[in-house]
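in:
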């Protein structure tokens, strides 16, 4: 989603400039990354150094990185020793602690003939079951519940919310399971909290989890594009090499400048490995300010960094907005006459490889709509913008059509079938028609219903409530692991706070890379949290990327 917090960003920049002189005594000199320190063959080819094209780099362009940065000790990984042990613990609801208006009620479906009901929305309505956990390991926490009134409710562990569930079935009891919860040996309290729907509770159950320990990380992944460029292949090999061993750092930049990345370096002493940007300004029907995003990517690659790009694609025609509720553009109107099947879209008019002349002819013959033409022209526009990166074989982690499962963007508002049609047209037009073979395609559909055929990496965007612990997000990881049938690298493409490195390794859910959003998501993060994360022994930063290929 687009995040806007310009005032906070301006204030943060002023504070950053003022802080420079105050902390300079802590800095050490670091060799200025001159041209001879650029990676050999990765992630850019020799063409960047030797090119006499329109993109030439001045000395200012080359010396992008800060030369005085703080130095911190490496933070070692700290995880407990897991004790694998079979366990199955059950507490009947009528034997739990319940207060307020809650009371026992007979029900034929209940395991012991009784359940606890009577939630009235009052604060003192509570039910809590205490367990004695036998071993330090991961568990599944299950509650058998029935909806008396459809709605959302929550499961709490030791007073902290660990999951929200929605029930609509008012006739039968349903097992609601929160998987992969790490618990130390000793007492654990599980409770159910009413949100906006009354429920009846049959029993609570805790059992040992066996799925997390079985997660495997491969070390070789084939790109979906059979003509993938040499450096795209090298980047994929780099990602595979570190997958399951480390997490690769990434930071979103709000524009063509490196404001956020420099901020990180001044705080932590490290630059992120990946510079993420947004190519929204290259859309034809956008009100976004034109920025030199592609040139910024070239400069970052020149320093040895990895380039990541997303596309907040403003509606190709009509009212300009990425949000479905704000634009009058409809993707459904763009899909040519087609036969929709349950799992795919087979279309009679294949537009992906049409030339401009063929597009106009098809439009005149009413084979395609104006909306379809505008989509093709926008894909052509973004392809032209990305062409300089392709010409120099700068590989790009390319993430278009993101957060489809949310339904708030126009590209997913008309359903999964139209979305898959659009993904297929974009993929083939960019790779086959425009010959962009430097792209590593990151699918960010957020739900199995939106899964596409051709992609290279599957990712999640995760934003939590303020002060909510990010943890490892093992549930999202496992969900993505299942839907991709264990065959794809999994990444945390956007996050509102930093994942916990220790807990990722404790839970065996190790995201390939992460991308922290800008504005308050970065500038509002505690400095020590940033320092500990960027100096972890299990985190890959820009300096690690450069050393890997020298």
């Amino acid at each position: 989603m687009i995040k806007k917090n310009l005032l906070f960003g301006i204030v943060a920049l002023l504070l950053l400039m003022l802080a420079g002189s105050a902390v300079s005594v802590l800095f050490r000199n670091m060799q200025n990354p001159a041209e001879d320190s650029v990676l050999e063959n990765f992630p850019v080819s020799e063409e960047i150094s030797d090119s006499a094209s329109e993109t030439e780099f001045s000395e200012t362009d080359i010396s992008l990185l800060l030369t005085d940065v703080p130095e911190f000790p490496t933070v070692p990984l700290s995880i407990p020793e897991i004790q694998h042990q079979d366990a199955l613990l059950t507490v009947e609801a009528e034997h739990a602690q319940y207060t307020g208006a809650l009371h026992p009620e007979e029900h034929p479906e209940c395991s012991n003939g009784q359940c606890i009901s009577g939630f009235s929305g009052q604060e003192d309505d509570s039910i809590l079951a205490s367990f004695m956990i036998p071993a330090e390991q991961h568990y599944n926490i299950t509650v058998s519940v029935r909806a008396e009134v459809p709605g959302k409710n929550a499961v709490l562990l030791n007073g902290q919310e660990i999951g929200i569930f929605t029930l609509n079935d008012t006739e039968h009891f349903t097992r609601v399971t929160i998987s992969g919860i790490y618990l130390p040996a000793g007492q654990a309290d599980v409770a159910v909290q009413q949100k906006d729907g009354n429920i009846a509770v049959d029993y609570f159950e805790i059992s040992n989890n066996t799925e997390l320990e079985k997660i495997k990380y491969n070390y070789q992944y084939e790109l979906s594009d059979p003509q993938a460029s040499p450096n795209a292949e090298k980047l994929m090999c780099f990602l595979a090499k570190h997958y399951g061993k480390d997490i690769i750092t990434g930071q979103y930049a709000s524009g063509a400048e490196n404001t956020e990345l420099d901020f990180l370096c001044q705080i932590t002493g490290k630059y992120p490995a990946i510079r993420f940007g947004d190519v929204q300004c290259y859309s034809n029907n956008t009100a976004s300010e034109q920025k030199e995003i592609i040139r910024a990517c070239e400069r970052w690659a020149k320093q040895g960094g990895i380039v990541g790009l997303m596309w907040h694609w403003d509606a190709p025609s009509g009212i300009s907005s990425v949000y479905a509720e704000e634009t009058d553009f409809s993707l459904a109107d763009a899909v040519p006459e087609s036969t929709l099947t349950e799992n795919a879209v087979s279309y009679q008019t294949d537009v992906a490889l049409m030339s401009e002349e063929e597009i106009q002819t098809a439009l005149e013959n009413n084979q395609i709509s104006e909306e379809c033409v505008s989509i093709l022209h926008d894909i052509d526009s973004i392809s032209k913008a990305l062409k300089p990166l392709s010409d120099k074989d700068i590989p790009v982690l390319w993430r278009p059509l993101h957060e489809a499962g949310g339904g708030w963007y126009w590209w997913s508002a008309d359903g999964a079938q139209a979305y898959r049609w659009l993904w297929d047209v974009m993929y083939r037009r960019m790779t086959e028609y425009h010959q962009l073979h430097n792209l590593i395609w990151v699918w960010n559909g957020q739900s199995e219903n939106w899964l596409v055929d051709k992609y290279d990496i599957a990712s999640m965007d995760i934003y939590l409530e303020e002060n909510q612990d990010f943890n490892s997000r093992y549930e999202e990881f496992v969900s993505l692991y299942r839907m991709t049938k264990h065959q794809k690298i999994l990444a945390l493409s956007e996050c509102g706070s930093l994942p916990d490195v220790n807990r990722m390794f404790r839970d065996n859910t190790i995201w390939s890379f992460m991308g922290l959003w800008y504005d308050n998501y970065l500038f509002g993060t505690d400095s020590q949290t940033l320092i500990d994360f960027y100096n972890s022994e299990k985190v890959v930063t820009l300096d690690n990327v450069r050393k890997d290929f020298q």
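note: The longest helix spans residues 370-391.
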